[in-house]
Amino acid sequence: MARMGPTTTDVTVSTDDPTRPDVLDLLGEHLVDMYATSPPESVHALDPSALAAAGITFWTARGPDGSLLGCAALKQLGRTDGELKSMRTTAAARGRGVGATVLAHVLSAASERGLHTVHLETGTQDYFAPARRLYERAGFVACPPFADYVPDPHSAFFRLTLPPRP
């Protein structure tokens, strides 16, 4: 049987530049989808220049041939808190565990940095159901708005308390 694409063991996750051409394409697709599924005031996705700002670490997942499979960022909110931002996989990588691999990498980095809590905001529409399931499987639980967010019927807020470092 022919393999349909890279498996998660073939995925390399590393810090990257959000302004690389292939990343710009993926982030552009991400923003288009966010505005297509949510009212503008409920879109909290960051643009590539914001993802390159101080206090944000940006990662990409790539296949063995260097092809882009996904991305995510971690924004430092405070000394012990962070926020997952711009989590996205390419259409070809969906359903293959790439998102879970990227999420595990970001959470490991958060733990190594001494963060105690990672928050995230995602949509409430059906479009976002796979993302919410991924986060819930990773242990995220619903929480009130955090940082500068306000209650919004189009936003779901989650947090994960990281285990203490040994």
- Residue stretches low in confidence (pLDDT < 50, at least 5 long) are none
Counting H and I runs of at least 4 residues, what is the number of helices? 4
Cα separation of the termini: 43 Å
Number of domains: 1
Helix content: 25-40%
Mean pLDDT figure = 91
CATH class: Alpha Beta
Major beta sheet, strand line-up = 1-2-3-4-5-7-6
| Portion in beta strands | 25-35%
Largest sheet: 7 strands, mixed
Q: In the CATH hierarchy, what is the superfamily?
A: Gcn5-related N-acetyltransferase (GNAT)
Q: Over the alpha carbons, how many angstroms does the gyration radius reach?
A: 15 Å
The CATH architecture term is 3-Layer(aba) Sandwich
Global structural class:
alpha+beta
Shape: globular
Please tell me about this protein's structure.
There is one protein chain. With 166 residues, this protein is α+β, with helices and mostly antiparallel strands. The chain has a single domain, classed as Aminopeptidase (3-Layer(aba) Sandwich), CATH 3.40.630.30. The chain is 27% helix and 27% strand. The chain contains 4 helices and 7 strands; from the N terminus they run E-H-H-E-E-E-H-E-H-E-E. It has helices spanning 21-37, 48-51, 98-112, 129-137; strands at 12-15, 56-62, 68-76, 81-89, 117-123, 141-142, 155-161. It has a 7-stranded mixed β-sheet with strand order 1-2-3-4-5-7-6, with helices on both faces. A hairpin with a 5-residue loop joins strand 2 (56-62) and strand 3 (68-76). The protein is globular and about 40 Å long. The relative contact order is 0.16. The model has no long low-confidence stretch (mean pLDDT 91).
